[in-house]
Design brief:
The protein is an alpha/beta fold and 207 residues long. Helices cover 30% and strands 18% of the residues. Strands 5-2-1-6-7-11-10 form a 7-stranded mixed beta sheet, sandwiched between helices. Strands 3-4 form a two-stranded antiparallel sheet.
């Protein structure tokens, strides 16, 4: 209990008036369970605003059956306003292949040094946008084997998570805790090892 009180009493580096924003990209059958913990901590710890966008700015239905209202069309997103571009994996990731607007926005985010975080199958989109060329990355082995022709320019490690110095985080679809911690660390929202351990335990149901 003391650890929980300590954690939630922490103030983020910008206080309660953070101007930082997340662009959370969703699509039909995205894996809602993969990013639940991360979204919670981005709001609770970082006080960050989360803008939800889809390709067409319409409602999508997640893998878990949640109806999510995407208030923004991805094409209209002003990347200068964001600090994080977050893309979950999911069974519907195949619908994102060959989507030029998504590739363009990923490239724009990369060029503007906006953190890009992708899990599981959504890592394919980064490969198609040629953001993984000569970089270490990871995703589920099944995904890698199925799309080796797309991943050919990257260096697949098979680790649970990979964080590049160029501002790209990739993770396997079950690395919830590691993904959450890596993103929070890159956004400089973590203060010490006690926080990291609490978040790890929280995500694993051990808190």
């Amino acid at each position: 209990m003391l650890r929980i009180v300590f954690y939630f009493s922490y103030s983020n580096r910008k206080g309660n008036c953070s101007d930082e924003k997340v662009l959370f990209f969703v699509y039909d059958e995205y894996a809602d369970f993969q990013i639940g913990h991360l979204l919670f901590f981005l709001k609770k710890l970082g006080k960050m605003k989360v803008d939800v966008a889809s390709l067409h700015g319409k409602e999508v239905v997640s893998l878990g059956g949640l109806k999510v209202c995407a208030a923004n069309r991805l094409q209209e997103a002003k990347m200068d306003e964001y600090d994080l571009f977050l893309i979950p994996g999911g069974d519907g990731v195949h619908s994102l292949l060959k989507q030029k607007i998504l590739h363009d926005k990923l490239l724009e985010a990369y060029e503007k040094n906006i953190l890009i975080a992708a899990m599981c199958g959504s890592v394919i989109c980064l490969a198609e946008a040629e953001l993984l060329n000569q970089k270490a990355f990871t995703c589920n082995e099944l995904t890698f084997n199925q799309f080796q022709d797309i991943f050919i320019q990257g260096n697949y490690t098979g680790k649970s998570i990979e964080t590049s110095t160029s501002g790209i985080i990739t993770a396997k679809g079950t690395a919830f805790a590691l993904f959450t911690i890596a993103v929070l660390e890159n956004l400089k929202l973590l203060q010490n090892d006690n926080q990291r351990e609490h978040i790890r335990a929280f995500c694993k149901g051990e808190a």
